[in-house]
Amino acid sequence: MSQCDRCKKEIKTMMITSERPFDGGTLLVTGVPVQKCDCEEQVLLGDGALMAGYARLLANHNIIGRVTVTLDELHQKFKMQDFLPKSVNQS
Hints:
By secondary structure, this protein is α+β, with helices and mostly antiparallel strands. It contains 2 helices and 4 strands, in the order E-E-E-H-E-H. It has helices at residues 45-60, 71-77, and strands at 12-22, 25-36, 41-43, 65-70.
């Protein structure tokens, strides 16, 4: 059992649905693993970046409304590098 240093409660790993607003709507990502205690909820950095990149993609393509996708589907179709800025000098 892992314990939080701040609140002294047990840190639990669970699956959540992450809701992210974007310009034009809301992205709901299901099946997101998090570590949670009474004071904090942590999503893996790579998962958070992937969800933020996808939300930005939806906004850039003028998608409107509520979009629901699983984290597994995002991992199957995209990599974090897909959402990084491309260098002007790349061939």
